[in-house]
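Narrative of activities, Objective 1.

The group set out to show that a structural description can be obtained from nothing but a protein's sequence at a throughput compatible with the screening campaign. Below is one input-output pair from the validation batch, recorded exactly as produced.
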Amino acid sequence: LDSLRLALRHPSLFPHLRHAAPSRILSEGEWSSEAPRCSWTLIEGDFLQNIHKAPVPDAIYYDPFSLHTDSELWSLGAFRRLFKCCEMHRTILFTYSASTQVRSALLAAGFYVGKGAPSGPKTETTVALSAFPDGSAGIELLGPDWLERWKRSDSRVSPGSSNEERAEIESRVLSHQQFTG
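Output recorded for this entry:
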């Protein structure tokens, strides 16, 4: 939280922090608003160790450092833990990554995965849903064309994956309801 504290000491440099929420989150551990209805809860510590302490979210903005810097947070194990926390709820996850490895891990964990909106130089990002979209979500799920490219890809799983994990990811992606109907 040091970077947030530092940014809050220099509000002239960070216009998006000129709001009551960031300071209140740091001082009280939470902030909420009625209009629009939104709440933030701060849970300090390691994400993967504390994920079960958080209320089940409606939306997740998943933005850890890159796949190469924080590979554990982009792994099948991390996405499984995240899915387990929200599988009984309609949760939507947004991430800037459009990596085949990340999308494969999300699918293998149980998420339905679709194409996200462009962001900066990226023409596509990723959206993942804990439950099959009811049609009103407006999400274009990855389809047979993506699956065919995935089958030909050398990047289906992260390079450090064991043979067991590689086989599991491949099996779970191929048998995912998103592609089998």
